[in-house]
Amino acid sequence: MGTMQTSIVFLCGTLFLYLFFIFIKFLHKVWWTPIQIQQAMRLQGIKHPFYRFLYGSTKEILNMRKESNGKPMELSHYIFPKIQPHCTLGSTSVSSLVSEAEFVKDIMNNKDKSYPKNEPDGFIKKLWLLRSADDIESKKLKQGICKSIIRTIVKREKAMNVKVDSFGNDFLGLLVKVNYDADEGKRITVDDVVDECKTFYTAGHETTISLLTWTVLLLGIHTDWQEKARQEMNMIINESLRLYPPVVLLPRIVKHEAKLGKFSVPANTTLVIPTLSIHHDTQIRGEDAQQFKPKRYSEGVAKATNNNLAVFLPFGLGPRSCVGLKFGLNEAKIALIMMLQRYAFTLSPAYIHSPIVMLTSRPQHGVQNPLADKWDENKDGYVA
């Protein structure tokens, strides 16, 4: 009997210590760390709305987005206030908007590995008692996908033992080759390879659909550009990506204290690069920044940005930029060329301009473009 009581006391004590440890870790993450970050930033002249325990500004953000999504806007390409009315507020963590080109370049290039992409909270994932059935199933699927990709990678790596540099010239082969790059600055890890494979097959689809949708909208408004599109497709695509980038924010977490220009950024700070805001900045683009003017890219992206690629970020920048960039662009170009060869279209009067973000930017009520067979003057008739 005494042994059983001792065991019960021991188990209860262990459980209490475990729960106490979790509670302290929870407080450290949602209270102590944000307060410390906010204090460090204020001392450097960077002010945020005062951090409120646990929820931060989440309630205000949700209300602002709900109000914004509940009403359409006039037909204007300046969609930043509509899509991101909350960007002046904080969130459940302390974050900072970063729009200066040099800072953006340093963060996205991430040469010293100080600014990795955001990951889910680690200690919460370990609390199986707090997981729902959907969470458990989601984890199993994620592990299954990772194992499947890793098995495929291992098969490619085994090929190297047979023939040097025989990873293949397809997407996976190129990624595995970079994994073995002699230059450590260019080399990526196996985890990076897995992440890029998942990105290619998921986010790649959404971004291409977003690009096509907004480009069709722009060509429906500016019908004169439909005739020019065959020769100037790159210009039209780039201008569409500038005005309506699929990804409107690029968040990065500060892994350890880092120096960003004259600022010292504390660890665990979330840095948010507002792609949409940068693309619409009149100080960078000029007074016509809100207008559809593909001609600004007539001499390429480098010329249009004054050789500062950090101000054109539809697919990110640096080693972790979108791996499906060329594939997605070519896919969009082919779809648009096939459409423009056969049809002419205008924007329907019934179209309601209400851009929103659901993973990627998209029109809330779709884009309605009545299609008409295109008249071919060379053949003196309609295209067959």
TrEMBL record:
One of its GO terms (cellular component) is membrane. The keyword Cytoplasm does not apply. Pfam families: p450 (PF00067). This is Cytochrome P450. It comes from Escallonia rubra. Belongs to the cytochrome P450 family. Its cofactor is heme. GO terms for molecular function: heme binding; iron ion binding; monooxygenase activity; oxidoreductase activity, acting on paired donors, with incorporation or reduction of molecular oxygen. Coiled coil: none annotated. InterPro entries: Cyt_P450, Cyt_P450_CS, Cyt_P450_E_grp-I, Cyt_P450_sf, Cytochrome_P450_Monooxygen. Heme binds at C322.
